């Protein structure tokens, strides 16, 4: 699964760049606290993808009782391409590492912009602060066409400025938040579960949710017992 | 100084919303480690804005020797209005608290956009990766006019979408990163010194530097001995 | 309440050293996101200790929906005296600032040691991993006497080493984890609620719980609406 | 190198449990910012342990200019056995993950205690706050013998309490901070360099420095170019 770009939205992707993660690390780091060393040796020698029934129970116990630290001894490094308005939500998650393409240093050469296939409109829910979304009743094709033309106009102005010698850090301020950018994102399962609980969730913005779904599938592939315990715990991070 | 908006750029500001900070807290928290309790009592009874010579020496010692934790027992809460491309750099500083206006929830009503008075162009420095900036040799008035018209076009398209019932979270993706937003930012002196060392600095982007200069003046007002020690230490955070 | 030592255990205390916290800061920082600025002005002019009904509802909404960041724009600075084995649990909470008395630098002069009035024994609960505690059925007076004598023996050996010129950092390694130490601890309400959810809780060690109870009473004094919402949320931090 | 226990002090060890780290990840995550994608492809296809000259220069540039984030996209997971007074310093480093053996849950069975071969005494340096250490001029054999007997007395009292049914969390409070414990510690290269700059350093306590030396050798094995740049930068973390 490492190395493969999984497409998200019209031009984005999630690519797992490298990973150091399995369910056993949760069990072993917790066992240091509990000092049940004999079981531990046994597990180390066993099949890493198939925990014993006792080990699975321990993972579930740790999740439910909010013993969060054993879920931190792992790392997932992702390469992500997403629009700026998605990255702005994403990078508010502080317990993670980020490096993103810089509009100060990079001169964009035919960059991508996000244009939805179908737009949304908001529907008031029964409770205050609770909204639902449905397909926009306006002319979706027209809107997509207007948005695309606007993106091109923005890019034309950017290029006019660049071609006239303006610094990239000034020229780029005309570009819309639909602009795609790329980042490296490294995080651990505990912080990732917090991300997933908030972003792969009904109230989350659909665009970031599309990314979070791919992230969750990768998480569940490498740490299936942890992912199952996360779901059984109402998707609350420990 | 609390409560006052200090203007930055064409439409932004920094406003100190609340503060719990003085140099004495650095001295006292360090004295817990060193257990020189007699001096400590003396200082507590003294004038908080005028540390003793020994106390000033301690602050300098802590800064130089990279004893960073005594500089964390304080809090500055700011209300800031700045363009999105400035906030994107700012919010990468993870040891701080942020709440920002949300383009998902807020329907922008005649928002502000940043247009520089004078544009910049980049000049290659003598070393690779080292750039300098000078005033753009192009037609600055023309560029400002084109940028302002583009901002208005972006806003017109946004309003067309809103007026036709599109969700704010979709309509806003056409807005450029020059859009002004607002945030609450709470941080402590140690994290702030790290911010200042990177953002109130020659290589920093001029726009974030304009904000960082105001932040530094507020920091220096409340913690003058610490700010002086920071400068004497080559502006390296401890 | 600031400045007052509240006694905990046989020789410990919690003292609020300084504070910048009220419920209004939660409301105002959240309102930046939601941009309901008119209400906000009103609240600022009002009584800080009595939020409007709408504001109270907002605090509850933020807690329930896990919008955690508005609870971070505040600071509580505590001075705490507690045994080492309590500090070892406490300082594992990483989103906070600590400065503690150092056994490397300080030469202990007649330090205090914790000796329980009454000891505990563990009773197996019905589920694995769930324990209850009850009063130890052994001779509590005898144990207290033996523990106290041991503390004195430890101190005698420490002082023998010190008096013979040994470095404090070596002499202190004979001292037991019942030794009292002191620290400055600065945290915000969100991190504090996480601390309280784990430490002012039935499964927590009774000794750290005694401290957490005092911390919670101080928290509830300064942020009563937040504290009430925390309890109504099953004591889960947002 | 993974899996091997490297002995430290009289009974401790550092064991690298798992690792996801190389110098190339520094280069690649930085290249996302700078968008020099062609070089990047080349490096990916090349020998991971031998960066190109340009790549080495980039690592050095990032270190010197304090671009710290590219050094975070990696993970080292260690299993460490050390005395409590060493762990108390170690665990103050907050940007890392810890799970430690718990004296509440574990009943110690013939545990180890640290007794120095040779004790130290402190010598005043020329400047205030600057100390040096030399071999203690007292009777080192006698001290080691007294310390060892004291450890045994502590353990005897612990076992008397345990044998009489006292809860482990109460019995253990008589044990000295020379007691060995075990932990899992997961960190990234940037946080590790901060740890090394403070703990593998002349002013650091010799016991934690002994551990930090082993950690640094492991770090330098997996990220040789980064380790070299760290040293060339005066051992300052970026």
Summarize the structure in words.
4 copies of one chain form a homotetramer. With 238 residues, the first copy, chain A, is α+β, with helices and mostly antiparallel strands. Chain A has 2 domains: 152 residues, Gyrase A, domain 2; 55 residues, no CATH class. The first copy, chain A, contains 9 helices and 7 strands, in the order ββαααβαβββααβααα. A 5-stranded antiparallel β-sheet of chain A has the order 1-2-3-7-4. The longest helix of chain A is centred in the middle third of the chain and has 24 residues. Chain A is globular and about 70 Å long. The two termini of chain A are 26 Å apart. In chain A, 49% of the residues are buried. The model of chain A has no long low-confidence stretch (mean pLDDT 92). Chains in contact: A-B, A-C, A-D, B-C, B-D, C-D. At the A-B interface, α4, β5, α5 and α6 of A face α4, β5, α5 and α6 of B.
- Structural class given helices, strands, pairing of chain A? alpha+beta
Assembly classification: homotetramer
**Shape, principal axes of CA atoms of chain A:** globular
Could you report the average pLDDT of chain A, rounded to the nearest whole number? Answer: 92
Poorly predicted regions of chain A: none
Measured as a percent range, the helix fraction of chain A is 40-55%
Cα Rg of chain A: 22 Å
């Amino acid at each position: 699964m490492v190395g493969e770009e999984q497409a998200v939205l019209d031009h984005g992707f999630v690519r797992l760049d490298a990973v150091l993660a399995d369910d056993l690390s949760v069990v072993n780091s917790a066992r240091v606290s509990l000092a049940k060393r004999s079981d531990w040796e046994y597990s180390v020698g066993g099949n890493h993808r198939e925990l014993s029934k006792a080990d699975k129970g321990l993972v579930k116990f740790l999740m439910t009782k909010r013993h969060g630290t054993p879920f931190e001894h792992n790392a997932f490094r992702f390469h992500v391409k997403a629009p700026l308005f998605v990255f702005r939500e994403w990078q508010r998650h502080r317990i993670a590492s980020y490096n993103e393409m810089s509009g100060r240093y990079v001169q964009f050469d035919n960059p991508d912009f996000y244009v939805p296939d179908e737009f949304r409109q908001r529907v008031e829910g029964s409770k205050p602060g609770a909204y639902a979304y449905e397909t926009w009743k306006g002319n979706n094709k027209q809107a997509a066409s207007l948005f695309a033309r606007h993106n091109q106009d923005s890019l034309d102005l950017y290029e006019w400025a660049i071609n006239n010698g303006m610094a990239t850090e000034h020229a780029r301020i005309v570009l819309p938040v639909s602009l795609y950018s790329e980042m490296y994102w490294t995080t651990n399962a505990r912080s990732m579960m917090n991300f997933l609980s908030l972003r792969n969730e009904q109230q989350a913005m659909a665009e970031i949710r599309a990314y979070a779904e791919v992230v969750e599938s990768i998480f569940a592939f490498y740490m299936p017992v942890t992912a199952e315990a996360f779901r059984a715990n109402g998707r609350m991070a420990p």
